[in-house]
UniProtKB/TrEMBL annotation:
Pfam families: PadR. It comes from the Bacteria. The keyword Chloroplast does not apply. Residues 12-78 form the Transcription regulator PadR N-terminal domain. Keywords: Coiled coil. It comes from Streptococcus oralis subsp. dentisani. This is Transcriptional regulator PadR-like family protein. Transmembrane segments: none annotated. Residues 116-175 form a coiled coil.
Length: 175
């Protein structure tokens, strides 16, 4: 059986695999784990995605009682599909940071001064992001392994990009 899923659906299924949640709890986890920096999941789309997952049989909801929020959990099929898609995405190599790479490919159209300024601004933003990520990681004592791995990879990637930026900035400053 082939069931197509989007990255957003897989992200939310992964959160549901930890334990049942309602949309506001999912939003809080996305924010607390810094996922907003690398995913396009908007708060307004969480319930829409949950409904799509339910229609596909990948999640189920417990009817709301009174003012209680509808709580969603992953189904057995949902977990099977999630594991299959996760394995596939771990193995396949996909382009990362395509916006930045596209900008670099087109940066020859900028003056060295403009490029230097843009890279210095990016460096400043990444340094702030690195500090936020370190603080989030320090506060996440009871996180699942996958969240700890995301923090670790995020820190490593940010530091690597900062090292590259520093080198490029130095090169541009010498020109």
């Amino acid at each position: 059986m082939v069931i197509k899923t989007s990255l957003t659906e897989e992200l939310i299924l992964g959160i549901l695999a930890e334990q049942p949640h309602h949309g506001y709890q999912i939003e809080k986890l996305i924010v607390d784990r810094g996922m907003r920096k690398w995913t396009d999941v908007g708060f307004s789309s969480i319930y829409y995605v949950l409904e799509k997952l339910e229609k596909k049989g990948l999640a189920k909801s417990v009817p709301a009682k009174g003012k209680d929020k509808k709580e969603y959990s992953i189904t057995k099929l949902g977990l099977t599909i999630l594991i299959e898609k996760t394995r596939q995405r771990l193995v396949e190599r996909q382009p990362a940071n395509s916006h930045f790479m596209t900008a670099l490919a087109n940066s020859q159209n900028m003056s060295s001064k403009e490029l230097l300024q843009a890279l210095m601004e990016r460096k400043y933003i990444l340094e702030k992001d690195l500090q936020v990520l370190k603080n989030q990681q320090a506060g996440g004592h009871c996180l699942p392994r996958s969240a700890k791995q995301l923090f670790s990879l995020g820190l490593t990637m940010l530091q690597a990009e900062l090292n590259w930026l520093e080198s490029e900035i130095q090169t541009l400053q010498l020109q």
